[in-house]
Amino acid sequence: MQIPRHLAAAALTLAALAAANSAQAATAASGNAVPEPRAASVLAPFSGGSFETPSVPAGSFATYTTGQSVGPWTVLSGTVDLVGPGFWAAADGDQSFDLDGYSAGTISQTFATAPGTTYTVSYALAGNPAAGPAVKTGAALIDGQNAQNFSFDTTGKSFADMGYATQGFTFLATKPSTTLTFASTTPGAYGPVLDNIQITATCCKQSCV
Ligand SMILES: [Ca+2]
């Protein structure tokens, strides 16, 4: 049987890889080395809830579109604005987040969770007061399931006095990772404003102490 040349080359490459792997294994065995857990499989904890990175120039905002990353967040649909220092008042730190860029946007982040643990999500909610609709609406989702609808009335609010209100809900983690999503249901370019999202474990698997 004649083996086509490119297949023969591939077979040789595989053989070389196998030899290299067994050499590595032999090295590890002789040194009594315990293999390190694979870092790539360990998901990072929740982060970026204050929208402080990446840094936006003072007095301005940066618009992101579907598929782009904003720190640890991903824009799932529509457009969003990362709002820089001094544009309007942040609830925490210097920056905040408008879920409407020039259209209703959705962001999500997947992070490590302990199955069986209950987590509390809290966040500061306001709305872009520059233009209507006056009442900004949206929803928070856990693993794609609606966890909380939210709305914020911007009547009487201003860039200097955004009037942030703390919102929150809990969820029970069922997997080693959980996806948190915030979705605007406000059409246009003036959406719900988020800042200071925090996630804390509120109950342990065995008992609450
Ligand atoms: Ca912030």
Fold and architecture overview:
It is a single chain. The protein has 209 residues and is mainly beta. It folds into two domains: 5-35; 41-203, Galactose-binding domain-like (Jelly Rolls, Sandwich), CATH 2.60.120.260. The protein is built from one helix and twelve strands; from the N terminus they run H-E-E-E-E-E-E-E-E-E-E-E-E. The protein has one helix spanning 5-30; strands spanning 61-65, 69-70, 73-77, 79-83, 96-98, 106-112, 118-127, 135-142, 145-153, 165-172, 177-184, 192-203. The protein has a six-stranded antiparallel β-sheet, with no helix packed on it. A six-stranded antiparallel β-sheet has the order 2-3-6-11-8-9, with no helix packed on it. The chain is globular and about 55 Å long. It starts with a helix and ends in a 6-residue tail after the last strand. Calcium ion (CA) is lined by residues 50-52, 90, 92-93, 95-96, 195.
Question: What is shown here, in short?
Answer:
With 209 residues, the chain is mainly beta.
Write the H/E string, N to C. HEEEEEEEEEEEE
* Proper CATH architecture of the largest domain: Sandwich
**Helix content bin:** 10-25%
Name the strands of the widest sheet in spatial order: 1-4-5-12-7-10
Number of domains: 2
Main sheet: strands, sense, barrel: 6 strands, antiparallel
Class of secondary structure makeup: mainly beta
Strand element count: 12
Radius of gyration: 24 Å
Which ligands does the model contain, each kind named once?
Answer: calcium ion
Here the CATH topology of the largest domain equals Jelly Rolls
* Overall mean pLDDT: 86
Number of helices: 1
- CATH class of the largest domain, please? Mainly Beta
Inertia-based shape:
globular
How would you name the CATH homologous superfamily of the largest domain? Galactose-binding domain-like
Percentage beta strand = 35-45%
Terminal CA distance reads 71 Å
Stretches with pLDDT under 50, minimum 5 residues: 1-31
